Amino acid sequence: xxxxxxxxxxxxxxxxxxxxxxxxxxxxxxxxxxxxxxxxxxxxxxxxxxxxxxxxxxxxxxxxxxxxxxxxxxxxxxxxxxxxxxxxxxxxxxxxxxxxxxxxxxxxxxxxxxxxxxxxxxxxxxxxxxxxxxxxxxxxxxxxxxxxxxxxxxxxxxxxxxxxxxxxxxxxxxxxxxxxxxxxxxxxxxxxxxxxxxxxxxxxxxxxxxxxxxxxxxxxxxxxxxxxxxxxxxxxxxxxxxxxxxxxxxxxxxxxxxxxxxxxxxxxxxxxxxxxxxxxxxxxxxxxxxxxxxxxxxxxxxxxxxxxxxxxxxxxxxxxxxxxxxxxxxxxxxxxxxxxxxxxxxxxxxxxxxxxxxxxxxxxxxxx
Length: 368
Known about the structure:
Layout lengths: L1 H16 L11 E5 L5 E6 L8 H11 L8 E4 L13 H8 L3 E4 L11 H8 L3 E4 L3 H7 L1 H8 L4 E9 L3 E3 L11 H13 L2 E5 H7 L15 E5 L18 E5 L4 H10 L1 E5 L9 H10 L4 E4 L3 H9 L5 E7 L7 E2 L16 E8 L2 E7 L7
Parallel strand pairs: 3-4, 4-5, 6-12, 6-13, 8-9, 8-12, 9-10, 10-11
Antiparallel strand pairs: 1-2, 1-3, 7-14, 13-16, 15-16
Helix pairs in contact: 3-4
């Protein structure tokens, strides 16, 4: 049993090494061992369109001259059973002679969802499911959210002074938190499929919204809530190789054409009072294979997302300084009662450089 635990732990470590790499695919690790528990091969899923973890582990074993006939494959997600961008991993394991598969959790993708296990068993492969399930699911919470809820996992990043001020009254906010906190925030950007902001931030700061402060093989896409299509076609968010989605509520063919020429995809999602329908926006992003959305927006859009019940998790950085009156984290309608407050549960509290990082979730939001 100890060998099995060690192999699953290593597979989970490999999966976590793919944190910035695999979206929109899940982060998956695989370790292949012989009957004595010796490692024959290992690997993790590559960039979308590339080999999955099982194939990488089989290739690693072959490159080392190891036969995997009769071996055990430890994998953090059910081997896929469908022809997508790559072939079925369950078939590759069977063809290689794998006789036992230990998987952490079933794949929530309806195209798989137990079919991979069924095909393995039909081919005479012993299948065990469960070890490392909680860790594997947490690592791929956005993928599970997209497959089950049909909406991305939404993580909102906020940075403020200890008294909750995110900027001076004139809008100046660079920099309240430390370089270490900003780099940590960029790691959250890098793991997400897309960074979401509002037109106010684009016009005021002209940010790139990339993850330049961490070593990442891919940059997150950008989503801008821009009701009237005011995003400048020369804005810094337009970086080659990533998608930019401009979400609008009013049609303007001239502005739309200019933004499309710059590389944007314009999505018309009209809501009430001339605003973008934020719920429809998230559903559309899920349809476009967005697993995780990292929100960095002004107080108005941030407040609207929270009041609409669309935020799952908060990542808050608090600097050890007091600023006094300025801009708040969120702009929300006043509550009539404390009973109406948005409930949260802290999942972690840690120090990043001189700052405090608090991760918090809406209770039960991850139970789907």
